[in-house]
TrEMBL record:
Pathway: Porphyrin-containing compound metabolism; siroheme biosynthesis; precorrin-2 from uroporphyrinogen III: step 1/1. GO terms for molecular function: uroporphyrin-III C-methyltransferase activity. Belongs to the precorrin methyltransferase family. The keyword S-adenosyl-L-methionine applies. It comes from Lampropedia cohaerens. This is uroporphyrinogen-III C-methyltransferase. Its EC number is 2.1.1.107. The lineage of its organism: Bacteria, Pseudomonadati, Pseudomonadota, Betaproteobacteria, Burkholderiales.
C-alpha cells in the first residue's frame, strides 16, 4: 500500500500550487518528490514535452494540456497563468508540470510572481534539465579540469527577438549549452564565428535527449549547419559547443542506442 501522497514530516503546510519539473523525457529521471506531489494532485496543467508516462503517477487528477513546445504555436502564457489562479482560488491541489526544470527556460519566475501578487504561495520541485541529460547521455562532461571551468546555458529562441552577447560568451570560454536552437542554427553558427570562435570548435547536436530514440550528431562549428541538414535534425534538440565535446568518449554512434535483449 502506498502512502506517498501524504505530507512528509514538517510539510503539513505545503503550498496548494506546485511547479514541478518532469525532467528531460526519461520517466525514470523523475524525482521522488515529484512523484509524491503528482500522486496528491487534483489538477495538472502539463506541457507538450512531458512524457505521457509521467502522467501515470496522477491517474486521479484532471489533466489539462497547455501546449509549450519550442518553435511551435503555444498556449499563451497569460492564459496559463489565469488558469493557475482560477484553480488555486478554488483550493484544489494544483500542479504545473513542465519539461526539464521549471526554473530553466520554463517561465517559472513569471508564474511565481503572478501567484505572489495575488497572495498565493507555491512550491517548486526541480527536474533534470534537458541540457544536462543530453550531455551525460552522450558521455559529455560539461566541465573538465584543464579544458573549461564552467558551462553557460542559453536559449536561441526568444519571443522579444533579443540576442545573446555572443562576443562575451566566446571570451568567457565556457561550454555553451544551447536550447531551442534548431530553427536558428544558421544564425547561431554565423554569430559565433563572427564573435571569434574557432571554426573547428567541436559541436554536439542531441535530439530527444534521454529517450530511447535519442540521436547524436558530432560536428564542428563550421560544418554544423550542413551536417544537421544531412542528419535530419529535428526539435527538440540541444546544441553543445566546446572542447569538452571532443574529450567525450568516441564510441558513441549516430544511431539510437539499443538495449541488450535478455
Amino acid at each position: 500500500m502506498h502512502h506517498i501522497a501524504k505530507p512528509l514530516p514538517g510539510h503539513d503546510q505545503e503550498p496548494a500550487v506546485w511547479l514541478v519539473g518532469a525532467g528531460p523525457g526519461d520517466p525514470e529521471l523523475l524525482t521522488l518528490k515529484a512523484v509524491r506531489i503528482l500522486r496528491a494532485a487534483h489538477v495538472v496543467l502539463t506541457d507538450d514535452l512531458v512524457n505521457p508516462r509521467v502522467l501515470e503517477h496522477c491517474p486521479q487528477a484532471r489533466i489539462i494540456h497547455v501546449g509549450k513546445r519550442g518553435g511551435c504555436r503555444s498556449t499563451p502564457q497569460a492564459f496559463i497563468e489565469r488558469l493557475m489562479l482560477r484553480y488555486a482560488r478554488q483550493g484544489v491541489r494544483l500542479v504545473r508540470l513542465k519539461g526539464g526544470d521549471p526554473c530553466i527556460f520554463g517561465r517559472a519566475g513569471e508564474e511565481m510572481a503572478r501567484l505572489a501578487r495575488h497572495g498565493i504561495d507555491c512550491g517548486v520541485v526541480n527536474g533534470i534539465t534537458a541540457g544536462l541529460a543530453a550531455a551525460t547521455g552522450c558521455g559529455i562532461a560539461l566541465t573538465m579540469r584543464g579544458i573549461t571551468l564552467g558551462a553557460t546555458f542559453l536559449t536561441a529562441h526568444t519571443e522579444d527577438g533579443r540576442s545573446p552577447d555572443w562576443q562575451a560568451l566566446v571570451r568567457a570560454g565556457t561550454t555553451l549549452v544551447i536550447y531551442m536552437g534548431v530553427a536558428t542554427l544558421a544564425n547561431t553558427r554565423r554569430q559565433l564565428l563572427s564573435a571569434g570562435m574557432a571554426a573547428a570548435t567541436p559541436v554536439a547536436l542531441i535530439e530527444n535527449a534521454s529517450l530511447p530514440q535519442q540521436r547524436l550528431c558530432r560536428t564542428t562549428l563550421a560544418q554544423m549547419q550542413a551536417d544537421a541538414t544531412a542528419f535530419g535534425l529535428r526539435s527538440p534538440a540541444i546544441m553543445i559547443v566546446g572542447d569538452v565535446v571532443a574529450a567525450a568518449r568516441t564510441a558513441q554512434s549516430h544511431a539510437p542506442r539499443r538495449r541488450r535483449q535478455a
